[in-house]
Automatic annotation (TrEMBL):
Phylogenetic lineage: Eukaryota, Viridiplantae, Streptophyta, Embryophyta, Tracheophyta
Name the UniProt record assigns to this protein: F-box protein
Domain (F-box) ranges: 3-40
InterPro entries xref list: F-box-like_dom_sf, F-box_BR-signaling, F-box_dom, KIB1-4_b-propeller
PANTHER family listed in its UniProt record: F-BOX PROTEIN SKIP23-LIKE, OS07G0183000 PROTEIN-RELATED
Record-annotated KIB1-4 beta-propeller domain positions: 92-376
Amino acid sequence: MTWSDLPVDLLHCISSYLHIVDFLYFSGVCTSWNLAVSNNALLGIHCSPSPWLLLPSDVGEASDTLTFHDLTIQEEEEDGVNIHYRFSSLTDYIFGRRCIGSKDGWLVTLDKMDMQPRIFNPLTKAEISLPSLFTIPEDKEHRIKLDESSEFYYNEIHPNYATDVEIFRDVYFRKIVMSSNDQFGTAVVIYGYIKLLALLRPNDKAWVLGPSDQNNKWVNFEDVYYHEEEHRFYAITHFSAVLAFDLSGQNVEFICPRKYDEDAAYSEIMNYIAFLFGNLIKIEREVEYVDLSKIKGDESMTVKTIRISIFKLLPDAVAWIPIKDLGDFSLFIGCNQTFSLHHTVAPGIRRNCVYFTDHVENMSPDEVTRDAGYFDLHSKSFHYFLDSDSQPNWPPSIWFLPSFS
């Protein structure tokens, strides 16, 4: 019997134990093996989720290669990132683009000039283009124009808000969150100087304005989470106001009112939102700016996360209560969609931790960080993956869950 003649049931059994990259190699051995495992998902056979960290490139957006670090692979150096997966010859998919989001096995990329998002699976090379973000309608807080010299975008309502064309994308568009990785889902973008929401619904040819209120109390959105069971989005602002809305941007429900905090107003704090143990939770992340002039001899700065706190919402009291333990779960925050993983699902990750990647107010190739690592809630200690004093981190790192779906 030749390798290509092995029973299909045996191939299914073997493939069910493989790491996702080994599964990729396995399916490429021959046509019969590829056909045998192509229906694994339909048969209920799945590769276990394996969180990867997208690493920066030495040549930035001119790269044709994506390099990842797999957190589930044990290494000799506890906090090293020596284990890499490289996917090359991706010029048509990533050249001149940066990642502005991720969901499951897909990355959301965005170019500088046309502002056209694409969702892309680096394992299968499947790609879906979305309408340009320039189609977001004008409103009383958003009207972006290009000046006569074609060098600056500016806001006619707030003329002091002028941005170099080269960095406009990176300071104006924060994150894209999706309900599904196909043309049948809804995408939400956080955009603008005051961080508003816009939506792209199935079959839409242009983006539409997202929920807000007439008094602008709900601006400065910082994170959006899609609740798959409820089929609606939850969004949180800088001052912890939370609202929910359906896939059409309608049926808006104000979950938690805005709470002004003077410390938050004048500090570098960002909120993330998710659900865990059936509770709505908020992850507060505080960073500090570090002057590298004494180390590097120039005026460069970097950012380092110095505090992470977790709270759950008590709906009846409309109050945020601190959480000290995530049990066997860990959270992943950054430019990606916020998600959680159980230790038994991805055995290589550390339980009761918050994994974080770069995600600051203004990020551009000239003002970037290498702020990626995890915070251990039990020991209350930080562990950093990247050396913040070394080469620039561009494009910014992002969490990614590889998948063939």
